[in-house]
Write the structure tokens for this entry.
Amino acid sequence: MISKLWVENVRSLVSREFEFSPGINVVSGPNGCGKTSVLESIHLLSQGFSFRAKELKELIRWNSDELVLRGEFEGSGKKWSRGLGVAPRKVNARQNGEDLRSPAGFFGCCPAVIMQPSDMELLRGAPDVRRRWLDEILCFRSAGNGATLRAYKRILQQRNQWLRQFKQDGVAVGGGELFSVLTEQLVDLGAKLWAVRVNLSKEISPIITDYYRRLSGGADEITCAYKSSILKCLEDSDSETSELSLSEEAFMEAYRAKLAELEPAEKALGMTMAGPHRDDLDLCISGYGMRSVGSQGQCRSAAIAMRFAAVEVASRYLEKPILLLDDIFAELDLNRRNAVAGLIRDKECQVVIATPQSEELPFKADTEINL
């Protein structure tokens, strides 16, 4: 949990200090006063990245040279402090007074899960939105998964660079030998990533289904499955889809064969056409994809169920996360409001809620912060 937060020059916030209780903390105030920026600051110090900005310099207040964040945290009988300074061309991250290589070093000690109205994109958005959500949860399970993700993205970028150069010039630096090495590295990392993603999807699918049932009052049910062309090839080759058929070795063999088949097309297009970076998480209701047939209420309930699944995984493998709620109750009907409130109480996480009207919340705050 976070106990104190100091914010300086973060978006509309000039200089503020906040104290939080272990229970439900409500940050209220008019639109544009910086409520979401408080949640974003907590998320940044907890997870090491922003849930709104692609680059941290976007958080710097207009006409300011840099932003500064400091936080005090507690968990598992320990206390620690974190600090972050962001200038247009420099980022400094510190924990307990020691420099970190990047804010990514914050990840893992005190997880945070954000719920916000834009979570509808988890259902309506492109596959990359769901992949990012899945990969974040993957990192809750193991720091090694994060290393695998970073390595895969690096090799993918290098292989795509080689393919783009080959498309343009008919030759590329390193020639066919380098391309073969990059392809084999991609095969190895891709297989590792598929193995852990498929395993995670098996774990979270029943969790998402259960939370959705509770949120919808049992009116309907959803299913959730990992969707991949490689996985489909393996399933087609073994109708029983045994655990052996989904091993890293099987993924490697199938991926290697797929890339060999696609090599002429990849060289013509200048891009890698198959791999974990093109997969999706398929959520269906009554056998149809929710992205196309789900109603607003159904998609919103499914998105909340996905966020609660993240809370569940973080609690299993790390510790209970900080639950950040950005004005989510305004979009829910009475039954869903009460269901979400019940789930929040059951989780017994530290909660920080941003809302323009605290009196309309379905529960009482332990700490109220007015902006």
